[in-house]
């Protein structure tokens, strides 16, 4: 066999076909591995970009939520202050109501005592009216007796002013 037919280059050792095909397979495997690694790195970069956007949006959401919580905290502080002021106002109002009720209770008690005094006075007045009625009845009886006596006296006085009427059978009677 000649050197040309054996596929050897002068000055170089002869490379066998198995070696060449092994080298070709190795290069193909390396190219596939490089392409797979490149695809993996591309997908990982895209996923990292998506995750970065998601984390950025989450940061914005947390910031907005913190602002909302701060606003809500301020509103709750205003509400708490209003409740404290309202409770103080109600306490003062209830104190006033209690004082008014105590004053009204004293006035009602005084009114009851005055009504009791009035009832006693009316009872006494009724007794006095009864006494006055009895006195007036006695006075009326006395006046009646006095009127009768005065009537008899007038007859007697008439007799003395007209002596002819004293005669027993006088037509002037």
Q: Can you describe this structure?
A:
The protein has a domain at 24-96. Helix content is 86%, strand content 0%. The protein has helices at residues 3-6, 17-161.
Strand-helix topology:
Layout: H1 3-6, H2 17-161
Protein name: LPXTG cell wall surface anchor family-like protein
Transmembrane segments: 20-42
Keywords: Membrane, Transmembrane, Transmembrane helix
Briefly say what this structure is:
With 173 residues, the chain is mainly alpha-helical. It is built from two helices and no strands.
Mean pLDDT: 85
* Portion of residues within helices: over 70%
Biggest β-sheet, characterized?
Answer: none
Helix and strand content put the structural class at mainly alpha
Search tags:
173 residues, mainly alpha, 2 helices, 0% strand, rod-shaped, transmembrane, LPXTG cell wall surface anchor family-like protein, transmembrane helix, membrane
């Amino acid at each position: 066999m000649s050197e040309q037919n054996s596929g050897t280059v002068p000055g170089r050792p002869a490379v066998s076909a198995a070696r060449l095909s092994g080298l070709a397979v190795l290069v193909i495997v390396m190219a596939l591995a490089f392409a797979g690694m490149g695809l993996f790195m591309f997908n990982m970069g895209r996923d990292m970009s998506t995750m970065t956007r998601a984390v950025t949006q989450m940061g914005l959401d947390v910031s907005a939520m913190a602002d909302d919580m701060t606003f809500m905290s301020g509103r709750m502080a205003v509400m708490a202050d209003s409740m404290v002021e309202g409770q103080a106002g109600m306490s003062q109002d209830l104190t006033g109501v209690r004082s008014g009720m105590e004053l009204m209770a004293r006035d009602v008690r005084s009114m009851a005592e005055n009504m009791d005094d009035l009832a006693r006075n009316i009872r006494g007045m009724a007794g006095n009216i009864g006494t006055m009625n009895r006195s007036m009845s006695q006075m009326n009886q006395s006046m009646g007796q006095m009127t009768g006596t005065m009537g008899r006296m007038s007859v007697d006085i008439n007799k003395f002013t007209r002596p002819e009427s004293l005669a027993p059978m006088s037509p002037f009677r």
